[in-house]
Amino acid sequence: MTCIRSEIIGHGHYQPAKVLTNNDMAKIVETSDEWITERTGIKSRHIAAEGELTSDLAMHAAEMALKTAGISAEELDLIVVGTVTPDNTFPAVATKIAAKLGCRHGIPAFDLSAACSGFVYSLTMADNMLRLGQAKTALVIGAETLSRVTDWTDRNTCVLFGDGAGAVVIRAYEGKGDTTDRGVLSTKIFSDGAQYDNLYCKGGVSSTQTAGFTFMNGKEVFKSAIGCLTQAAETVAEQAGIKVTDIDWLLPHQANIRIIEGVGKKLELPESKVIVTIDHQANTSAASIPLALSECLESGKIKKGDLIIFNSMGAGFTWGGALVRI
Ligand code: UT7
After folding, report:
1. Does this model's pTM top 0.85?
2. Which atom of ligand 1 lies closest to the CA of 216?
3. Are 224 and 312 a contacting pair, CB within 8 Å?
4. For residues 305 and 296, what is the distance between their CA atoms, to the nearest angstrom?
5. Residue tagged active-site, from 22, 198, 283, 311
6. Is residue 296 annotated as part of the catalytic site, yes or no?
7. Distance, CA 25 to ligand 1 centroid (Å)?
């Protein structure tokens, strides 16, 4: 039976110019390149310049996504931005992007707060809206300036995060309704608020009237991460009626190489099928998946027709997955 599918027709990414290596981090807190590399897989992270905002990062990614899609901003009829580091408490970064890109007056534009699962959640929302006929062409962005909510005296967290943005343009078309279709084939999102205190920003509009700083109970997050990421991947595969081992690529949220490798093993995927960009990207929260995807599409590593699972997990806890044929 035919059905509406959301095909990824464009991709973009951006990382700020300033790079902090692990050796640079060792000058800021008591740490070492050896510890960070071994425990996380991170070698360097990009940090936004003073005055460079989440919307600026998002704009770079958005412009590249429109260019690779070969469409103009007037063709967009929906913008969703996954972020937990908006320029202002309100309004949404997405409305600023719509205005800056020169989108048609009145198109819906909103931000979605799901921390590191922000892109998978945003893609799920946009895909559902396309499938319901509420939009035909959508821009989905993950963008963060996590450096602004990083406590640069806390070695437990400050070595982990980076700034960046990634974006995709998705467009509705009528597919055959099977897994040979291109586009989003299956999505599933989850949450567990009982884990709220294990990873959160200590501060906020309603509690402290400040943006606050990231707090993470790393061990607890680590314990849940492999299970959540595995569940997300298995669920989207099962919903589509395929085996996880049928995919060409697993593109997990880039939080820790040990988590990424653990998930790959649990899913019985060879290392060569698991995408790793954490070394030069660090953890960019909602930006991590679209950033890595766009890099891999640009380099030709991921090709048209490839079957890929995105899976992510983060604060909330939130987690989720998407099965997509590029
Ligand atoms: O994006 C959302 C999802 N987030 C995640 O998935 C992150 C999940 N958690 C993790 O990735 C890991 O738990 C961390 C990378 C955050 C920490 O790794 P760990 O292997 O769990 O280290 P630990 O917290 O058990 O700390 C081991 C030791 C401690 O010293 P003692 O108490 O054993 O003397 C820490 O104080 O390492 C110490 N340590 C550091 N040492 C050097 C913690 N951070 C650092 C550091 N440099 N930056």
Report:
1. yes
2. 16
3. no
4. 14
5. 283
6. no
7. 15
